[in-house]
Amino acid sequence: MFWDALLDAVIDSLKIAPFLLVTLFLMEYIEHRAAGRFERAMQRAGRFGPLLGGALGLVPQCGFSAACAQLFNGGLVTAGTLAAVFLSTSDEAVPLLIANPAGISSLWKLLVIKFLMAIVAGLLLDTIWPIRKQQSAWAAVETPHHCDSDGRFMSILWAAIRRMLSILLFLFIITLSLNLIIGFIGEERFAALLLPGFFQPFIAALIGFIPNCASSVLITQLYLDGMISFGSAVAGLGTASGIGLIVLLRGKRGARTCATILATVFVAAVLTGLLFQWLM
Predict the structure, then answer these.
(1) Cβ proximity of 95 and 19 under 8 Å
(2) pTM as predicted
(3) Using CA atoms, how far apart are residues 243 and 67, in angstroms rounded to an integer?
(4) How many CA atoms, within 13 angstroms, populate the side-chain half-sphere of residue 156?
(5) pLDDT tens-digit map of 140-178
(6) Residue 195: left if φ>0, alpha if ψ -120 to 50, beta else—which one?
């Protein structure tokens, strides 16, 4: 059974590798070209920050959530703007859905829902709990980017290859683990462990908070395998903001501020997930 599970995991991972590489190359190119413009646009957005953040967060990339968290730590964007970016960012879910034919039909619905969820939650947070901007010297610290960026073809290609290998490694580990668990306990018992029904979006949203692309890979793969509902995928990917969470927590905004933003993200993701779980 182990060798069958291992072979299936290898085949499933290699099967999407070419499509994943092409997708990631295009995404890396977008990020190299747009990173600076993103930061400038976010600083100038003002009260429309959540709207712009919700839109730009949808761009498949690996550094925008971290960039916005750094801008927030520096007092250059509002809490609602950061919450909107966190909610609309899907980390590695978009390239996985694009690379998998079964997931393409769900991609546009996921992006539209996350955009609307992001701007509503962001605008509400700024209305209920406005934080006055306080620019400071450390606000000008250069935003850390996840990928090397000199704009040249080979640099972008190498960044895409590294990101692809990272995703494929997580995908292989997750697929192998799922295959082994299902092989040992059966598909019905495994589905029961995922708490189908009302509580599933809560669990998915908590998994999404893991500050690593493994969380979005796991949630996306579980959805593609039919193990969790679309609503649960929305909830889990709503909280999957990647390294942006680490940048926020390493800042100087205080525990209460960070907790309020993360609570807003969690509640918005879970409520939206529950809504679409009920509708679908």
Answers:
(1) no
(2) 0.76
(3) 10
(4) 16
(5) 434 444 444 444 778 878 887 887 788 778 778 877 887
(6) left
